[in-house]
Amino acid sequence: MSATADRQPVGRRRRARDPEPRRSYQKVKVSEDEREQLRQRAAELGVSVPRLMVESALEGRMTPDVRRAEIAELFEIRRLLATVANNVNQLAKTANISGQVPERDRLEKTLGDVDELIVDLRRVTGARR
């Protein structure tokens, strides 16, 4: 079934053919509201509803427990980043008043913490750069 009743979604691409034909099917009951949401989402992505459902289920999407754990980790990283930003502001204030950086060890540790946070953020978000 396509994402709209009358036409295929814009930009729709076929899945690559499998060497073995697909012989199994899965029947799913949904409410009218869920059906409409599926159609709208499929149309946004330019795929059919069945393709949306198959790819969403098999893509390895996060379970709610994994998602909650990752969100908690992001909040912890955010908290640590705020702490580091506060340390940088204090060091900058001291340097601006005195014209010197008397707490060089603290500055180096803070910059090391920033590097660690960037590594953590890239790991959690999947960002490369």
Written account of the structure:
By secondary structure, the chain is mainly α. It has two domains: 1-61, no CATH class; 64-125. Helix content is 63%, strand content 0%. Helix 1 (32-45) packs across helix 2. The longest helix is centred in the middle third of the chain and has 35 residues, at 64-98. It starts with 31 loop residues before the first helix and ends with a helix. Residues 1-6 have low confidence and may be disordered.
Structural class: mainly alpha
Record field, number of beta strands: 0
Q: What is the share of helical residues? A: 55-70%
* Helix and strand sequence: HHHH
Number of domains: 2
The pLDDT mean sits at: 78
Write down the overall geometry. elongated
Low-confidence stretches: 1-6
Largest sheet: none
Helix run count: 4
Query: What percentage of the residues does DSSP assign to strands (E)?
Result: under 5%
The separation of the N and C termini measures: 39 Å
Rg (CA only): 25 Å
Describe how the helices and strands are arranged.
Blueprint: H1 32-45, H2 49-58, H3 64-98, H4 104-125
Features:
single chain, 129 residues, mainly alpha, 2 domains, elongated, disordered N terminus
Question: Short description, anyone?
Answer:
The protein contains four helices and no strands. It has 129 residues and is mainly alpha-helical. The protein has two domains: 1-61, no CATH class; 64-125.
